[in-house]
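name: query_chain
kind: protein
chains: 1
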Amino acid sequence: MILALCGGLVVATLPSGQCAEVRQPAVAGRFYPSSASVLETEVRKMLADAEPKAPRALQNKRPLALIVPHAGYMFSAPTAATAFKLLQGKEKPSRIVLMGPSHYVRMTEGCSIPEYTAYKTPLGQIPLDQEAIERLAANRSFHKTTRVHQKEHCIEVELPFLQCTWDKMPPIVPIIVGQLGAQRRREVASAVGDLLDRDTLLVVSSDFTHYGPPYLYTPFADTPESGLRSKIKNLDMRAVGYIEALDPVGFGDFLFDTGATICGRASIHVLLELLSRSDSIEPVFLEWNNSGDMTGSHETCVSYVAMAFYANDDAYAQLKGNGNSAKRSPPAGAAPCLDEDEKRALLKLARRAIMRRFEEDSHQPRPERLSDGLREPYGAYVNLRVAGRLRGRAAYPLSSAPLWSCVRALAIRAAFEDARFSPVKQEELPGLEVQISVLGAPKKVSDPESIELGRDGLMIRRGERLGVLLPGAAVEHGWSRAEFLAQACQSAGLAPDAWKESDVTIYSFQATVFSEKELDL
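structure:
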């Protein structure tokens, strides 16, 4: 092998004739110290000072995945240290997959993987897992575009923490995630999932809300400086709630509704798409901080969040391929069968999720016992009523997340994010009634005459447009079958008679409906 110096980059001419570069540090001396001794001392001190905030039952396990920030060390590194602390004393993984956003090169749909052989920091060189990179390169969603990685800091700033965790770093797989549509996001999640096993660590690099005129994001412009921090934190904790729920649909809706400036949102979205395929993931919120606490002003600031995700042995098979290997497929069209304990658990979970918004504890609740029924990927509706009048509603008719996670996210959306109503107030909670509809898997309807009013709900789809009506809607309003179909079309934004068109697909489903009132809760 012949070594040469080429444009300041170390280039190795391999026997195959290919050129391989060692990626040099891009932000050493700016985001973190360029001196190896100073950097190591600083990182080790932050790791020593960080508190292990994972629940006691998980503290002896190595996380499957982390979310960590990537700003200059003086701002975000103490937050990142709370996540990296969880790796200390744990078995070294055989590889580390790192995902983050592009800050310097505009990326269209897809992901970038580099042609480097190694990344370098002041603490030394880290090899790339070439076998894993070649596996990704065979996927249409991944492209070898080294230019994207040359100046990018989101992965580089995480590496010194990993280098200070183990004597010899395992190889890494750096992925810069660009804009992703829903289908491409699922493909990326599947490709990353195929790399995951018990010996792989996944690190998602992202800062959270970028607030202020420089970021073109000032949703709280009328708020006094004294109240900005609280509003920004509440916004970030809404995002954390969807992440804790492993809810890619809710997270996407949150981003759309708020325009939240979470720079690594595409990488987080991929993480949620992947982890929601398993019913054996334990998310743990670790830390929230904000640069305004250090600068003294929140009028221009950036938030930082650290989270960890733990998996049991069942999870890894579920994460492979399309993620459905360990999940039962509910029979198409049939109403989900839930026992009374499961119904009570969901109703209690929904109410606790709403109540948690008024408490200091920002962690989202979980069911006391995860039965098989609560783990199923059913869609659901959550209706909130006060004195019999609708107070809020939210729905995920098609969900890839476990039912308990879906219901928890919907309860929050119904209470606080239904644009038709003001957010639920704490004093309303005693009179608030929760009703849940759990939807069976949709069944394609070939003959509309087979639709049974009162038993079947309807889904009408044309392209990306989807309209859904619950089974009880036809009876409640006294609709005929044709009127029921017409109303379902209109709920999808289609003409009333669109159900007759060849490019419109009709689905029926049954639902299991229950409420706190019925179960005396």
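note: The CA atoms of residues 112 and 127 lie 17 Å apart.
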